[in-house]
Amino acid sequence: MVLKAEETKNRLKNLLKDPLLLFTILVIFASIAIFILFPLFKVFAVSLTDRAGNFSMDAYQSALQNRYMRQGFFNSLLVAGLTALFGMLVGYLFAYTVNRTDIPLKGFFRTVAVLPIVFPPFIGALSFIMLFGFNGLITAGIFGYRNFPVYGLWGLMIVQVVSFFPVAFITLDGVIGTISPTLEDAAFNLGANRFQAFRKVILPMSIPGIASTMLVLFIESLADFGNPLILAGSKFPVLSVQAYLQITGMYDTRGGAALAIWLLLPSIIVFILQKYWVGKKKYITVTGKPTTSVLKSVNKPVKWILFAGCMFFAVFILTIYATIFWGAFVKAWGMNNTLTLENFKYVFDVGLGAILDTLTIALTSTPISALLGMVIAFLLVRKVFPGRKLLEFSSLLSFAVPGTVIGIGYILAFNNPPFLLTGTLAILVFNFVFRYMPVGIQSGVALLNQVDPAIEEAAYTLGADNRQVFSRVTLPLIVPAFFSALVFAFVRAMTAISAAIFLVSARWNLVTVQILSQSDSGRLSEACAFSVILIAMILMFIFLLKLFLKNRISLSQNQVV
């Protein structure tokens, strides 16, 4: 204890010698306290008071005694659990097939497997209704069947799996791709067949990635708001939707806050498990670059079965998203399929303000979020200071907090002086910055751990200070992570709905809110047109960003030459 206290004292002394570093750390801690911790505290505080402001558990008692709310909590956990399981299985199917077989169209499958990330999550729900609903193209149009269970557990779970399995694929693709084929060769040499090699070599080494993936998918599904709002229906209550309706429909802020806390608890528990238990468990194969063939992993029949499985899901995913584009060009989905451009005229007449607002908010919050993530990653990896573990946990906390909880927290925290931000551009920008900052932090930490600290130490030896080292040495080295954070933050800002729906106003609106509004009004073709415009803006941003990065790299190479 004495040694630890002395070590902390020495760290404080070193920190005081660098005023810029100390100021940066204090500003980051203050920002996290205001925009992450304070809103969560307000949700807790409001849920534990009565109308007179006195301590009370009435909101929790009322929620627990309400059978409909209890069913909503159970349904939320059920959908999240099933999404985690089936999303992981689909992600594993794609990851194993592209890494352990010689099937054709690997690039195609990799592209399709990450395609849903670019699309707003609830667009899948909208398309699912258009394909399998009462007037669905497939159910009613082809088979003449109008009673497919689109609304409720199975419809919601299918759309959740399609929306979130790319997270599983990205993780498991990295896990399976780094398992050396020499381990399978060793198993074959010892007499194992292909199934035994998979069960005793590949699968056990994938378990940390599988567990981490399932926990992340559980959090993502539990926190989702857009798909349940469209597909859950009144007979299948989901807690994120009920918390929203409690506040916006019944004007019961305390009841909504209590439901938000009820939703928050499993998310936080799962986040801690993922971050500090499963996240620390890794199996590493200490080998050089694999030189043996991976084609012995499966035989020909199994290879084509895996190919067929991937193709089935790929066609289903492409059908889901192609439907949106088709719907945008017909007069009235399910009733009048005459091609028209009137839907886009309607979009620009009614929703031009929302389109410009969305672009303004996304382009403002994206660079701030990405840069802040890089700064925090630099501090976590390269600096030692008191409170470092607290900074790591609190900065990543917003990843685990459902958007509904964040939205409720922001309207409670920033509705009165000194933080009167409700209805302004600032509240939306701050929400997006701190909501999507964790991805930049994780990308930066992962890349910085691969950069030799000796490069930065050389800059310090030559007289550079912390600001110069970060801006001229570290940041250029982590440009790929920075641009990944930019893309993710922009896509999420453009497609956000769960927290943002509480924060929009007459002055600042979002395209996603317009899409939900059109869907609720039964104007599916107009909702599709809004979706196509949104997707086009996202793809254009990614294209321009890649073009800029490519030109930057070419310029750097020419300068070196």
What would you say this structure looks like, in words?
With 561 residues, this protein is mainly alpha-helical. It is built from 25 helices and 2 strands. It has a two-stranded antiparallel sheet. The N and C termini lie far apart (55 Å).
Written as H for each helix and E for each strand, in order along the chain, the element string is HHHHHHHHHHHHHHEEHHHHHHHHHHH
Rg is: 25 Å
How much β-strand is present in the residues?
A: under 5%
User: Roughly how many Å apart are the termini?
Assistant: 55 Å
Instruction: Give the low-confidence spans.
Output: 286-294
Q: Structural class of the helices, strands and pairings? A: mainly alpha
Reported for the largest beta sheet, the result is: 2 strands, antiparallel
Helix content: over 70%
Number of strands: 2
Strand order of the largest sheet: 1-2
Q: What count of helical segments does DSSP give?
A: 25
Q: Could you report the average pLDDT, rounded to the nearest whole number?
A: 84
Identify the overall geometry. globular
Label this structure with key terms.
25 helices; single chain; 561 residues; mainly alpha
Produce the secondary structure layout.
Blueprint: H1 2-16, H2 19-47, H3 58-65, H4 67-100, H5 106-118, H6 121-132, H7 137-142, H8 153-177, H9 181-189, H10 194-223, H11 226-231, H12 239-248, H13 253-276, H14 300-328, E1 330-332, E2 336-339, H15 342-350, H16 352-382, H17 388-400, H18 403-413, H19 425-448, H20 453-461, H21 466-477, H22 479-495, H23 500-503, H24 511-520, H25 524-560
Antiparallel strand pairs: 1-2
Helix pairs in contact: 2-13, 2-17, 2-18, 3-13, 4-5, 4-8, 4-10, 4-14, 5-8, 5-14, 6-8, 6-14, 8-10, 9-10, 10-13, 12-13, 13-18, 14-25, 15-25, 16-19, 16-22, 17-19, 19-22, 20-21, 22-25, 24-25
